[in-house]
UniProtKB/TrEMBL annotation:
GO terms for molecular function: phosphotransferase activity, for other substituted phosphate groups. The lineage of its organism: Bacteria, Pseudomonadati, Pseudomonadota, Gammaproteobacteria, Alteromonadales. This is CDP-alcohol phosphatidyltransferase family protein. Keywords: Membrane, Transferase, Transmembrane, Transmembrane helix. The chain crosses the membrane at residues 33-60, 80-103, 109-132, 148-167, 173-194. Pfam families: CDP-OH_P_transf.
């Protein structure tokens, strides 16, 4: 819901940073993999309840996730780069949630499992729509720079990262916040399915 606005705010600084990386011949996929490796370190940070460190890792991972896209727009996007980026994103999202389960299994495990279950809905509805949109040559004018059709919703990347930040700032309230966000993810999944039905059926008429 907020991604289109967040992109406008961060576009310029990411572009300037990407130009610096480009001068050193750094490739977008290198940034993606480095950010992913850094992002996975959130697991031990959370497991040992170093929430401040986990927050820094999350923010750095998201910065690098933006940088790889900005760099790709300078050097030229690739299908594999877009694929790698989205795969790493979804694994990272689940890693953060798993980390809170490791931090306090008794208090957080059920909420963590529930949120990952809800992520399956948002992730699959997002990716399946992108596959069908590519098949039908449907483009999203709001995100023309994306390597695949970016279907919006109530819970997009910006909302997810905002919730991760809240998790780190209020770790004792992880369970209720996770369950509440999971409910919003369910709404997102339902609205995406309805949107897909309306779009694809209209094209068949």
């Amino acid at each position: 819901m907020l991604d289109r606005y967040a992109i406008e705010v961060i576009r310029a600084p990411l572009h300037h940073s990407a130009k610096v990386l480009n001068k050193f011949s750094i490739r977008p996929n290198q940034v993606t993999l480095a950010g992913f490796a850094l992002g996975l370190s959130v697991l031990p940070a959370l497991a040992f309840e170093h929430y401040g460190l986990a927050l820094i890792i999350i923010l750095l991972n998201r910065i690098m996730d933006g940088l790889d896209g900005a760099l790709a727009r300078i050097q030229g996007p690739s299908d594999f780069g877009g694929y790698l980026d989205i795969v790493c994103d979804f694994i990272f999202y689940s890693a953060v949630v798993l980390g809170f389960a490791l931090a306090d299994p008794q208090a957080n495990s059920l909420a963590s499992a529930t949120l990952i279950f809800c992520f399956m809905g948002t992730g699959s509805s997002f990716l399946a729509y992108a596959v069908m949109a590519a098949k039908r040559n449907i483009e999203n004018p709001i995100y023309p720079h994306k390597s695949l059709y970016y279907l919006g919703g109530l819970t997009e990347g910006s909302e997810t990262i905002a919730v991760f930040v809240i998790f780190c700032l209020l770790p004792n309230y992880f369970a209720p916040i996770a369950l509440g966000f999971g409910a919003l993810c369910v709404i997102t999944t339902v609205t995406r399915i309805l949107s897909a039905k309306a779009t694809f059926q209209a094209q068949q008429v």
